[in-house]
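(Fold this chain)
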Amino acid sequence: MTFNLRSRFLLAVILAGPFVSQPVIAEEPDSTRTTSGSDSLAISDMEVIILDRVMVIGNPEKTHEIPGSAQYIDHKRLEKQGYNDITRILREIPGVNLQEEDGYGLRPNIGMRGSGSERSEKITVMEDGVLMAPAPYAAPAAYYFPTAGRMHGIEVRKGSSQIKHGPYTTGGALNLISTPIPKRFSGRTNLSIGEDKARNIQAYLGDSYPNFAWLVETYQANVDGYKRLDGGGNTGFDKKDYLGKLRFNTNQDGQIYQEIMIKLGKTDEISNETYLGLTDQDFTATPFRRYSASQVDRMTTEQQQFQMRYFVQPGESLDLTSIAYRSNFERNWYKLDRVRASAGGTRESIASILESPEVFASEHAILQGATSTNADALEVKANNRSYYSQGIQTILGFTKRSAEAEHGLELGIRLHRDQIDRFQWVDNYRMEDGKMILTDLGAPGTESNRVETATAFASFAQYTLSKGRIRFTPGVRYENIHVELEDYGKSDPSRTGSALAIRKNRIEVWIPGSGIDFRISNNTTAFLGVHKGFAPPGSKTGTLPESSINYEAGVRYNGERLTVQGVLYLNDYSNLLGSDLAAAGGTGSGDQFNGGEAISRGLEFGLQTDLAPPASNGLSLPLRITYTFTHAEFRNAFESEFGPWGAVSRGDDLPYVPKHQFYVGLGFEYARLALDLGSKYSGSMRTEAGAGGLRALAKTDSHFILDGSAEFRLAGKTRIFVGIRNLTNKTYIAARRPAGVRPGLPRTFVSGIKIDF
């Protein structure tokens, strides 16, 4: 590409021209259709087209037509689960790798097909088809994640997601769908309480008029936490999420249909979370303990999002969808980082102390509350950062049907800019009989003081030919990315530029791919796909883009009462990227680095059916089974300063990728009563790269977790419910990062009431 960013911006404006040039005329849409759940939450026929353009799957009915692996969790299923933890929601999706951290899913670690799960940075995370990581190009680690509890649907697409949805095209795409505007005046209130003083509320209200519609919604959750802090204290969180939507539209039977949707959102969170885990010995004795040295650890965040979507259909075969978006995210995770037992001693990281407590006995004692001889024994870092992500994306769709074939073409562009601004400092504390006392207040900007900015132009073209039994979908994606880091240094908090260091990286890549779907019978299809995988490398000099060739082949059966899908996949990396994140056990620089050749291969299987006889007079016994096998390994040897990798030999397994995952869910629905059981088995995961048997101090525990829920409908549209997480109260090591052993959520009860009107 020879044209500059200004030229690309002008091109985007030209394609999005109707966004501002067409008048909005008002009349009532005369056609609606419902998705799952309440029939008041409906989408118009035009909305079906918009969803197909913007979302990962779009129309849920097309899940079985996509030439690749795709899953859709609908509103009815989300209601039955009643989760606000995205990692629990995704347990039943094959091919998804999950690593628990806090037990509540506040900052999830999600990967797909062995791509790496650290802060979900190797998948494309979206809400309503818009990138939602705080800075998806410059700093993709998702310290903000959309509130799963308020979502209407969840889409997961692997393999074939590579063309339309980037920039992370190796593992796949995860899209969360917010509550749609209801077609008539209606609303809902869900109230629940639970153990550890848990209190949740979700409420929305909305209405549609001939040419105007609106929705307001809130989701609020708080809990005191299941971990027990030495000396007492709150270990939970308080989260408040607000959302509003406005839609203006012309008549559907008018000459040209147009629609503008405005979406505004705000989320605030205070979570008393820490990076400080436990030693193995302390975990065995008291698995839900938190050391005294984590008593001031707290994460505060604030996020705002804005989206304006314009849709126009100038003809039966042509449509255009444009979205302008902006999100802001500010966070300060104030948490213990290092310990210095004596004034002249070495500053030891909390990870090192917990890995070798016998070597760092004095430091470990201070973590547990022993009085420190050093006045500045505890270094608490204010990981203060601000982010923004903004851009405009446009998709032009064309469809032509004839008696012989159907042709579809999508052309898309996106102009995007994002930034992360690190402005951090360190405070010092002493420990006195289990109480932390501030001794030295750090100056903001004297720890990490740098700004990283990414500017990206992305475009894609995807063609679909459906003829007879075959559907062929070739396409290509283009990414042009410029990343620049300005490091002001720790001695220049005023940012005068006296010690400014700048580094830059520019990446240009073409990402081709193709899928083919063959209908064997009315209910059975086979598909095959080959796509290039890509992830941007950041600004560090010498770091190459992540690159792979990804293959998948599968068969699916979609009957009236039975759905089955089996997929084999192979991701062949010519260069795998690693990220130096403190959350992943690294130093926290955020830099990416080359990991060289690697390979990930596996099997994904899913089955859904109803065990009740067809003529059962309202009885339903839904059964869901999924299985995932994943084997991811390095294909070359290298030395890494990144702790979880270290000295890598050819054939070493990647850390935090379970080889076996198995899910079984069974429901009972009859008259006013609905019961649901969901069970998930996850095998042990390595916490360090290696081969052969798993070392006791470098693995997680295999675990089988059973959740259950029951719901009873009272008179009208009022329902009461009860839920149990971890029914058998299984205690297990969920992770050994960021620092030390971390437990999974223990048995937890929740109950409440749902009122629709």
Confidence is low (pLDDT under 50) at residues 1-38.
